[in-house]
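Could you please consider the sequence and fold following this short note?
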Amino acid sequence: MPVFVALYRGINVGGKHLVRMEALRAMHERLGHQDVQSYIQSGNLVFKTPGSAAAITRKVATEFAAEFGFGAKVIVVDAKRWKTIVADNPYAKFTAAKPPTVHVGICEGEASAKELKALLTKTGGSESFVIATNVVYLHTPAGLGTSKFAAGMEKASGVPMTMRNWRTVEALWKMADAVK
């Protein structure tokens, strides 16, 4: 049975849209997902279930809104794709030395390289990025929290995106790989 990673966006941030991970895992279990596990409190789940990532995304988004009373953006990625995201990291040399400086934006569609380059030029920071299929890898030498580029990435990319730091990306891969 295929394994998936679900990334919820906009929950448990700044004291708003609070969702207990136990409740989120229970919702997924009611949907028939197996071996449901969560990583930290920000809506990162690993589970196995039949179906496609697109169909699962639609189903969990609908169920989430009904269950919790508000909508949350969710992006579901199959574990094979997640493995590729980890393996293709162009900033691997930084993840060993300074993992907090590397992030991955998981996108719903292809990000606009032209618009992201224009934003980087406009913001003038020290960041760099690499676009892959539905992914934007980001290196922020001065940190993500102060990056004007990172703050404007989603709008400039032209597609919905959710960002995860490299430690989370690796942890989710280890969890997904362990689900049999």
About this structure: The chain has a mean pLDDT of 93. The chain has two domains: 3-81, 84-170.
